[in-house]
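pls read this stuff:
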Amino acid sequence: MKKIILLSLLIAHLFITNVLADTELKTSDVFVTATRTPIPKNNVIADTTIITEAEIKLAGSSSLPELLQRQPGIEISNNGGPGKVSTLLLRGTSSTHSVVLLDGMRIDSATTGFTAIENIPLSQIERIEIVRGPSSSLYGQDAIGGVIQIFTKKGLNGFKPYLSFGYGKYDTSILQGGIRGGDEKTTYAINLSSQNSKGFSAFEPNPNSSANIFNLDNDGYRNKSVSASLTHKINEKFNINFQYFLSQGKNKYDNRYANYYPTIDWKNTQDQESFSGTFNAQLSHLWKSSLRLGRSVDDYIEKQRYVSSDYIELDNIYKTTQDQITWQNDILLPLGSLVLLYEKLDQKINVTDTSYSKKDRQNDAYMIGYNLNSNKHNYQVNLRKDFNSVYNDTSTGNIGYSYEISPNWSFAASIGSAFRSPTFNYLYAGSSANPDLQPEKSKNFEASLRYRYESDSFSLVTFKNKITDFIVSDSTTGYKPYNINTAEIFGATLSSSHFIDHFQIRTSFTLQSPSNESTGKDLPRRSNFYGNLGLNYYVRDWNLGFEATGSSNRFNDAENLYKIPGYIKTNIFAEYQINQNFKMNARIDNVLDKNYTYAYEGNPSSNGFRYQTPSQNFFISLRYEPQ
């Protein structure tokens, strides 16, 4: 039934009329991540999305993963509520196949390969850029599925303080405030945020499990964060910029084997920190150069450690430090422009687990890119070579082309390669590690047809991504990782945004076949059909909205033994501009109180568990922000 409803929405989407309304709601016309240089969005060849500050403010108590899930081509997995492990599946690729950048800096864990997106508060974010498709020729390792770049709130001219407080179900509260200001030479910003939630049990109760009684408590989450920026214009040719970000999360969770350790209250903490300095120089009217030096830290601590056949309350540390250098030169040519890049990444881990045989690695990379906009034609070519201290050197490339069929319609196509670097856990953690692992490699072809007229847009993208040397670590390999499989993901994404009088209709639907060619099985936790529907009604000082997110069935495991049912989740919200300085926002998520899950722990039909998701819940906030 759910599948029929989703298919009906897809058919209805095809017949939506293109009518433009008189509205001031606009998205930015400049995109950076797809080429590493600011270019008009209409000239971008890649499949992209921008999430604006206005959309982020409407999200209420939603997490970053939940906001990303409402975008085209993105599925998520979550282990039981706020602050729990959440992963992204971009166009059917794995959770470690996407690069997440925070103000240009990598912030992932080198041990697991995950970026703790559940620990990045929306309150710190000004804008998000999403690039779908292989991007290793621009950003190096792990960009098989694409890149998500998060921009924190920056300074601006004038003086603009803001303060917001919200409260909702599960005793959830979010307090945020900050100051953004500056003049023509210097701008600054400091943003503070605090989030608390008592949450709910991460596991759905299962009386068949001996661990059930030990997992019935609420698994809460707390987060405190700060971001800051300072930009100074030295003169007309030189400026310098500093960025800082810190997020500190405290989390409780459930354990499938809690009955063996009844005295342990399962907890973890996670700190994510990033700081960088960038020097920009306009060396001539044809040559711009920038140098960024930075460091990021992912500090994950389990508050219990396995010692002598038992868990005790003792810190178990998994800390990743990444030193990053990026030197980029943008050169205008008589025809087109050139991007020359050197990038250095030094990764170090500090762990209490003594079984790791190696704790550091280095990567040096050189990239050349060429971009050309000539009349109705756009061209993009990127070549990159990564020299790694652990595995064989890797070359990646991308060729893209788009043609403006008419002022509103365009066609684009690209072919590109990418790779994923094996994690420290796979390479060096104990007797099950494999130090001979090589990177996973992919080749992707995609083509798209697009329409754009002011605030109206339409896009149909088809893609085929083949991943070789696919790393497998399961019962068939004795849980030792090997490069033995090949995966292929073929699919299409249809998305649009239209205005009909005061209504805005936003839709996106993805059909895909993510399969392991070596076994003939579906890749775990990927559905064949998923999508979103959004309706906004703008009237005077009100913005009223409806959101629906749905997914078809998918399997929890690589052997395709345990099927996760499909679902449709609906939300409603209202935003009211009280006066020039105050705005109120109210949301009810999961309005129909659907019981659904993103993931299993074991087999819930026997002694395993379903990870819970929020039931029907509300969140109300009041924001002070002088205009």
Q: What stands out?
A: The longest helix spans residues 2-14. The helical segments are 2-14, 53-58, 64-69, 136-139, 424-428. The longest strand covers residues 482-500. Confidence is low (pLDDT under 50) at residues 1-27.
